[in-house]
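Follow-up to my post from last week.
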Amino acid sequence: MKIAFQGELGAFSQQAILQLLGPRAEPAPYQRFDEVFAALRAEKVSAAVLPIENTLHGSVHENYDLLLRYDFEITAETSVRIVHNLIAPPGVSFERVRKVYSHPVALNQCLDFFRRHKRIERMTFYDTAGSVKMIMKDRPADAAAIASELAAKIYGGRILRREIEDDRQNFTRFFLLEPAGSKPRSPRGAAQNPWKTSLVFSTKNIPGALFRALSALALRDLNLVKIESRPLRGKPWEYLFYLDLLGRSNDPVVQKALGHLEELADFLRVLGTYRSA
Amino acid sequence: MKIAFQGELGAFSQQAILQLLGPRAEPAPYQRFDEVFAALRAEKVSAAVLPIENTLHGSVHENYDLLLRYDFEITAETSVRIVHNLIAPPGVSFERVRKVYSHPVALNQCLDFFRRHKRIERMTFYDTAGSVKMIMKDRPADAAAIASELAAKIYGGRILRREIEDDRQNFTRFFLLEPAGSKPRSPRGAAQNPWKTSLVFSTKNIPGALFRALSALALRDLNLVKIESRPLRGKPWEYLFYLDLLGRSNDPVVQKALGHLEELADFLRVLGTYRSA
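User reply:
Got it. Predicted complex:
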């Protein structure tokens, strides 16, 4: 099973693929998110894995836009803790490290580490996993990289320091996408977890409209676990809402709530129903 | 008036300072967002400017967290269109450019440009404005940078190509922060704009709770222009909500709505009231 993701081999998205589908899924890297979607539509891959929100950086609106532009199904979700490790080629000791390569976002998430080790210079690179690939190929004698444990494993680097990130509460949530009509999957350990349904709808003229729309859920005692508004481009006072609720889309109560919501909203699309992570 | 911001001189945050306070405000660059807040608390600066959301990348949760940890007032907002320009030292023509330096996020937002010009290599740098500073200092004969027009102006670079970004709908919204109790400001051109109030509240057990909380606004015909939920760390089923409504915090109707919301929420804080951008 070939799975598209954005980034280099060893990226956190590949960790998400592992968590979602196990080690037999074959990761297929693409440079851009829209290429990931295009690959799935062209059936070059059988699924795609996509970051959708991060605890520090918020929702990836670009990917919500792509979810709406294409007609795929979310069949599972997972959450990856973003752990940054200092990785060097075997033979390079921590004491010899003078330069550390990584993506600037990763470098910026390890500032306490760099303050404690002032001899070490930060060097920017286009990708976290790519920086490990580079140091393993070029083998500079005084350089290391910051990336995931998976990147160290894939490129044969040694982890010199683990968990050097400033904030341990850094998680990214990923969706597994499959062609429309695909059945939900149960990633390992999630088989007993409650169901979640993700949907997008639009309304004019909130809060009257949002309040009424939410009544379709609240008056049926359905639990909301995410809501986010987003202004519609070029349409002042019209909004998209991303919403996750607890429940499976074919539960009778959820069915009724969705029918009711459809009456109240200008537009409604169910993006998928899946076991919560 | 000294204004703290995160980044290098010439960053988009400095453009926001210009839009908010005009050319006489003196920008004071800091490396991290928490340093920006600390500088304002220590009165090293009289205000701070902070990105809070982007149309492609969503809300900057890290900055919402800092808004809650500190006790400052949002006194104005502005929106900056993220325009990427190809900038080189005077004398370097477009035909000679072989390498382009910038932050990877900026490089990734100009992929169509790089596809059209395959001779040009992408080089990552820690910051967009910093990449202009670097090429103006080192003067490589075949290199350019991608950054704002302001960065070109500050460091004396020449713009070889304007607006090379893939997506023109890339805007970042910024807040102006001042000590608690500061009065709202009217940035140029915003004096007649409607008032907005930003608040944060928490509830247990949505949607019952969210639905009821929104009734405090909806039943008073107050317009919501943003809502976003965020799970509270370590407290399953409790949520923070970021909410922007149209209206000034001392309007009698808004006052009543806030009083009512306070009854319904576990926690409520008004972050500021200001003219919408």
